[in-house]
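User: Sequence for Alpha/beta fold hydrolase below. Tokens please.
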Amino acid sequence: MTRNHTVSPSDVPRTPAHPVEANGVRLCVQTFGSEADPTVLLICGAASPMEGWDEEFCARLAAGGRRVVRYDPRDTGQSVTSPAGAPDYTFNDLIADAVGLLDALGVDRAHLMGISMGGALAQCVAVTSPERVATLTLVSTSPAGPTGSELSPPAERLRASFADPAPEPDWSDRAAVIGYLVAGERLFAAPASFDEEAARELSGRIVDRSTDIEAASKNHWALREDEKPVTVRLADVAAPTLVLHGTEDPLFPLDHARALAEGIPGARLVTLDGVGHQAPPARVWDTVLAAVLRHTDRN
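Assistant: Structure tokens for Alpha/beta fold hydrolase:
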């Protein structure tokens, strides 16, 4: 069992974001908490750098007795980049990056927490490297393999946006890029809970930290096909699994979460009222953190 902590989030030790060599590439990583505690590896969604996992959220999770690791996936933040629109890697490379990062940090086994595409990556790691995965926490995501039944499509507003996407900004114009990112966040969030001021502040930090914000915004949507893609059968996921899902998710409606919870043996579903396809907002952190700490209270 995890040892008890009395440290407050403000006192949690944390490293500055820094580069490490993982899976043969440079990834930028930041850690929170003590190396003596069980590691929780946070895996971002598509086109999202480590800021997709709020720093205060990470500190509160670490204050509960976890070593928390967040990182910039390829082409985001300050990790290795490819030319915009031409990523030189595949989805399988992103799977291997997560395992390679554990190797680089000297972690034999970790709790994986992935959001959206990061949830799919976490499922893939769980079936390709099960010995490295203590538990899974899947946030705002969908089964990474067949379920045997048809799942609900995205909401009409998203389908319309996919069919007629917004014009690209001038990528050299900071204000225009921030506005473009905020508009994208608004599209996926639950309308009643969207915080434009917070989204604008976060988008500004992302733009300012990104080596190439155009590549960060495009390349995960343009990945090369894998010759041998990973096949996930939910019944083969052996890691204890927690599913966290917003009731207002417009990309993956709630039946996607139910398919995960029903397909993965022993999985548990916690719904987040009024939350869309987004990182859990601060108003549900108490619920999310309590669930994650309870779920990961095993070594």
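The longest helix spans residues 174-188.
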